[in-house]
Design a protein that fits this description.
Elements lengths: L4 E6 L5 E3 L14 E5 L1 H7 L2 H6 L30 E3 L1 H7 L4 E5 L9 H14 L4 E5 L3 H13 L2 E7 L4 H9 L3 E5 L3 H15 L2 E2 L7 H6 L1 H9 L7 E5 L4 H15 L8 E7 L4 H8 L32 H10 L3 E5 L1 H15 L5 H15 L10 E5 L7 H5 L4
Parallel strand pairs: 5-13, 6-7, 6-9, 7-8, 10-11, 10-13, 11-12
Antiparallel strand pairs: 1-2, 1-3, 4-5
Bound molecules: pyridoxal-5'-phosphate (PLP) and zinc ion.
The site of pyridoxal-5'-phosphate (PLP) has 20 residues, from helix 5, helix 10 and helix 14.
Length: 401
């Protein structure tokens, strides 16, 4: 069995790379590269009909769209499709006709990051690696360590000392080599790039390793299938580094290339007002057709309570800004207090308990509803719930009315 990867293309300057390129980023401009596929060949084995006949209920039913050769390399953990629930309370409160939540709190390590880690771990296993690394605000590391434990591959994680206790506990029990960094996520990130570069360790860093986007994109295939093979009108995505939204965009771009959808949904990036680098950049750009090489992200000083999206310099920022601009979407800011209040709003009205970053999507939709900004949002709308609430109970216990 082989894969349909055909090469890579820089998301900023457009430089192209062959499929055996083993670097992480563009050698010309230092930006992220995007995997490309032979869609014509994929179309011969992947269609609505083939999916209807496929009895595999996990993300591996989308195997032709992943960048590894053989299913035998995937970590032996359950990556079943996650539920897409209608959210009737939010429908009533917002005045929309069709609103859903996508519950990724129940993936193996409790976050959306398992979509990326399972695919990138399969790539690592196929390369025959015995040790891999990553920096993380918490979830990506937990997920990488979880998949490493299942695959028998050692994992080194660089994590800021401010990460919630539950996430540090998760890292430790999965047996990772945990390097607690006296500094923020950005410092952990840079150190991981430096040290992994020196030792040649395969680095999963978000917005650096091109294959994380290739795993995250499966959420779009799932939503499309769960809506009866129809794309939603809009998807609300919590944004830190911007790799999740870039993966969502990639998934719908794949479906469009395959002729399976005619229009990519509007992607709505939601950020805390205390970690809003992508939103700031998006607001400064008036022309949605801007040349990608002109998109520049500036580092800010992030302080949000939603630790998973607390990022100074978004590492997949160019793709995130492009995802918003090119899909006709928007970037929305929400207050930290509203993020915390939405944990209870979502849990008490749907039974799904998500962490602060995880409900930021819902906070964004409600912010637009309150400010009259929903009129031009297409339906159905889907809010991604990206991390489990048990990962950060302190945040919710501190809630003020
Ligand atoms: C729960 C959760 N939500 C959202 C995000 C944001 O994803 P990204 O950093 O790719 O924008 C993260 C990233 O750590 C996360 O863990
Ligand atoms: Zn480039």
């Amino acid at each position: 069995m082989s894969n349909f990867l055909s090469g890579f293309k820089c998301l900023s300057c457009g430089k192209e790379y062959k499929k055996d390129y083993s670097g992480y980023i563009c050698t010309d401009c230092g930006s992220n590269i995007d995997a490309e596929y032979d869609y014509k060949a994929i179309g011969k084995v992947f269609s609505v009909e083939s999916l209807k006949e496929n009895t595999d209920k996990t993300v591996w039913r989308y195997k032709p769209l992943f960048p590894f050769n053989d299913i035998k390399y995937i970590p032996p953990l359950d990556m079943s499709l996650t539920p897409l629930y209608p959210f009737s309370k939010l429908r009533e409160d917002s005045g929309m006709d069709e609103v859903y939540i996508k519950d990724d709190t129940r993936l193996p390590s409790g976050s959306f990051k398992d979509r990326a880690s399972s695919v990138v771990m399969a790539v690592a296993a196929e390369k025959g690696l015995s040790v891999v690394s990553a920096a993380s605000t918490g979830n990506a590391g937990c997920s990488w360590a979880c998949m490493g434990a299942a695959s028998g591959i050692d994992v080194i994680i660089y994590v800021p000392k401010t990460a919630p206790r539950a996430k540090i506990a998760q890292l430790r029990v999965y047996g990772a080599d945990v390097r607690i960094i006296d500094g923020n996520y950005d410092k952990a990130y840079d150190l991981c790039v430096k040290e992994s570069g020196e030792t040649g360790c395969f680095n999963r860093n978000t917005g650096y390793n091109p294959f994380t986007r290739e795993g995250k994109k499966s959420v779009s295939y799932e939503i499309w299938e769960q809506l009866g093979f129809k794309a939603p009108g809009s998807v609300f995505v919590p944004v830190g580094d911007g790799n999740i939204i870039s993966g969502v965009w990639k998934g719908f771009r794949d479906l469009k290339e395959l002729g399976l959808i005619s229009r990519i949904p509007e992607l709505i990036a939601v950020q805390s007002s205390k970690s809003d680098a992508v939103t700031r950049t998006t607001e400064k750009i008036s022309d949605r057709d801007i040349d990608p090489s002109e998109i520049k992200l500036e580092s800010i000083s992030a302080t949000t309570v939603a630790d998973s999206i607390s990022v100074d310099l978004p590492r997949d920022g160019i793709a995130a800004v492009r995802a918003v601009l090119e899909t006709g979407g928007k970037a929305v800011r929400v207050d930290d207090n509203d993020i915390i209040k939405n944990i209870k709003y979502v849990a008490a009205s749907t039974g799904v308990f998500a962490e602060p970053a995880g409900v930021t999507s819902v906070a964004g939709l409600r912010e637009l509803a309150a400010s009259g900004g929903l009129d031009d949002i297409r339906e159905p709308a889907v809010c991604l719930l990206t991390g489990n609430g048990l990962k950060d109970v302190d945040a919710v216990l501190k809630e003020k009315d």
